[in-house]
Write a structure and sequence with these properties.
The protein has 7 helices and 7 strands. By secondary structure, the protein is α/β, with parallel strands linked by helices. The protein has a single domain, classed as Rossmann fold (3-Layer(aba) Sandwich), CATH 3.40.50. The strands form 2 sheets. A 5-stranded parallel β-sheet has the order 3-2-1-6-7, sandwiched between helices. It has a two-stranded antiparallel ribbon with strand order 4-5. α1 packs across α2, α1 packs across α4 and α2 packs parallel to α4. It is globular.
């Protein structure tokens, strides 16, 4: 069983709501989300509901009309089921800063503050889950320093970063 933290942009792309996403990119996101529905992976979330809240701000809780919306409904249905979702404790130190996010790394100072919760969650979980990304370039820009602190990334739309 694989453990993942899923950036919100994956579900947005699966909903066909991203202009920069190619057809292949969209299908890749849809297929990965379907793997969660088929119990192939465990989703890792935070105890403060920051990730779920972000999902709720960008997706429809009814599960309609897109695959990303269905993912949110799946998350809300399964968030307390440890066979499908696991929750880790993270500690906020300020609005978008967390005890679990390395503060001593100059090479991560400019990392997107709104994405730090995903890193904090991955670092707090004992299995160090992979973070899924579709179209957010920040993950690619900071891939090396993130890898150095133990963060693994999976790029569902690698064609966007072919020249980086």
């Amino acid at each position: 069983m694989s453990y993942y933290v899923v950036d919100t942009n994956v579900a947005i792309v699966a909903n066909r709501k991203s202009e920069q996403a190619s057809t292949d990119c969209t299908l890749s996101c849809i297929n990965k989300i379907k793997e969660f529905n088929n119990n192939q992976h465990i989703l890792v979330l935070d105890n403060l509901w920051l990730i779920i809240s972000e999902y709720q701000n960008k997706l429809s809780q009814t599960g309609q009309p897109g695959i990303g919306d269905a993912f949110l409904k799946w998350v809300l249905t399964n968030q307390a089921n440890p066979n499908r979702c696991q929750t880790v404790k993270i500690t906020k130190t300020s609005i978008d800063s967390f005890e679990e996010f390395p503060q001593d790394r100059e090479d991560l100072e400019k990392f997107d503050r709104s994405d730090r919760k995903f890193v904090a969650v991955a670092l707090a979980h004992p299995h160090k889950p992979t973070i899924l990304n579709a179209v957010d370039s920040d993950w690619k820009i900071f891939e090396l320093p993130l890898k150095e602190i133990g963060i693994n990334l999976e790029f569902l739309c690698p064609e966007l970063y072919a020249n980086s």
